[in-house]
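Many introductory courses stop at the sequence. We go one step further.
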Amino acid sequence: MAKREIPEINAGSMADIAFLLLIFFLVTTTMDRDQAYVRNIPKKIDVIDKVEIEQRNILAIKANSLNQLMVRGTMIADPDDISEKIIEFYQKNEKRNDPTNNFPMYTRIGMDFINTQIDQIDSEIASLESQDAPAEMIDFKYSQIEEWNKKKKSLQLYGGPELPEIHFQANIRIEVQDATEYGLFAKIQTEIEEAIFELRDGESQRIFGEGYGIIKSRYAQDQDPADKSKLDLLEVLYPARIIEVTPKK
């Protein structure tokens, strides 16, 4: 009896099948997302004179090696409470200053004051340019004018005679230790972002009748100058001044 030959398997399409399977697994596979946050890193500046900051202007958030939290000198068990502490920090004296409490004071600036500041800085720039002062000094003065013009537009958009501003020293200070879990550090950052967003969103709803997130998303798409002015106003009302202290061992 003749021996039957085993037919060869056509493997010509195996590479295509393997490629399709690879694409399928890449599309359907889910990966764990790292906890992280996004924030612009401020430029390093040289400090000539040390400026003392009043304790009432500091919201200190500390975490130790045992992952215990302290906010403004008070231990808190639930990290979710951080955002509430931040909102209180901003709003405690927003409507009316109370010198007896330990929270940042507010100033209220009008259009005459803003114009006076712009005129004064313009005069300083002219003097510096006539003296061939360093370009860094002149650029700094121009940045000051830019900030005052931003406040001028913000006041016009705000609609009132005066623009409320939290004390210029008011800041959120984060201090953790090397052994502090990164998850807790990320949670602190998330709570800060959440509190700032909630503050800006509430004021955005009151002034513009729409949410802060809606305006921010729309501006990211079409770069409308009108939306930029709205965002600038909300940032003036609730600035995010965050200091991260070098972790301690």
